[in-house]
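Deliverable D5.2: sample structural annotation.
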Amino acid sequence: MFVPLLAVPLAVQLIAAASGDLPKLDVTASCKGAAEAGYAATTQERLKNCVDSEHRTRDQLAKNWTGFPANSRAFCLSSIAHFAPTYTELATCLEMRRDLANPKPPQASTNGMAPPPQR
């Protein structure tokens, strides 16, 4: 059963993507889960490091946001909308779409093996 209210957050993010604004994501839940699953340092230190990293990623994305095509922004936002999204996941999706759209030519191998075939 489709619940229209569940579509509202997604619609807001898609509109933001089309309008050129980087949406505000609440990364706390994702960082909290990652912090609780980690083994190094304390949970609070891991949580702070995660949130700080996400803020740095958000700042970098904000600088480059309008450089990504609107259809890529909308696609990537919709792909992370159904769970606790992070800016890192959003940036990774955008970078992968950019790189797939602009593949680099294969480089000569330094280990004597032929590069993988182009598709």
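Annotation notes: The mean pLDDT is 83. Residues 14-101 form one domain.
The annotation will be released with the project's public dataset once the embargo ends.
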